[in-house]
TrEMBL record:
Protein name as it appears in the record: Beta-lactamase domain protein
Signal peptide extent: none
Highest rank taxon of the organism: Bacteria
InterPro entries registered for this protein in UniProt: Metallo-B-lactamas, RibonucZ/Hydroxyglut_hydro, Sec-metab_biosynth-thioest
Domain Metallo-beta-lactamase residue range list: 18-227
Amino acid sequence: MQTGIERVRIETPYPEDHVNAYLILGDPLTLVDTGLPFPKSLAQLEDGLARHGVRFADIEQIVVTHMHLDHIGGVSAVQQASGARIVVSEAARRIVELGEDEHRRFDAFYAAFAREAGSDVRWESRIWMQKYDWRDVVYVRDGDVVRAGGRDWRVMYVPGHSRTDIVLVDPAGHAIAGDHLLPTISANAFVEPPVDPSAPRPKPLLDYRASMERTRALDLALVYPGHGDPFADHRALIDRRFAEHESRCAQIREALAEGATTVAEVTRRLFPKLEGPVVMLGLSEVQGHLDLLESRGEVTSAMDGEVRRWTRVAASSG
């Protein structure tokens, strides 16, 4: 089936093994995501495009599905070679335009989140953020239309995996989904600071579930994910992800019943092998499911000094 969407696989050192970039052939010639900023990654991107007769200099537009390093790492190199405009979520504006100030805000947020979770883990946003020298940036919102490859793509804002995720959907039901939907792994609904610094902490798993409900309602022919092979039957995948959430909630209820009271204590029970900065991924996973349980009235929490402690709510007998 000819869709005019060509995949370029780029190796990564992460458990996902590779990340996908997508070339949308036609006017304007568009590249969706770009892999990591390392020389080997850029060479693989260049080679992958060359197999379709395309050079960096030929790219007219770059679309960013979300602001994680394995998806944005080659943006600067491609734009410097081509002068292509960049399309990214409005939610990414502060990250792109404020640079180091936004890095510091993220770092302060994660330090406070770890303290409240009862953990001493250190997570620096510089692990996945970088200095942006992007020019000609177009910020898009939910419902906007992006012209790529001779057709109109509707933008869906799908926060959850990050605050900056977007999905592109064309009239034929092809969806370029970044990490919003992945066929072989469940994307972490990662805790991040709010886009608006004055807003409270987002609850990413609740947002992610709402985003997936919206995606589930779409009639899609094929989903092009950020990792893994393109796939059909997105509804079955989403239903599996929802079932996984229920299984994780059951594990957390059990951990609380056995005496765990903090996010860090639950995380150690569920993920005992996690060490170093990646402990933050476990904390984020647990916090997201506690948010879900709290939204259902199954758990409650209170501050104990600088640490938040969680308890189960007794089931009503009435």
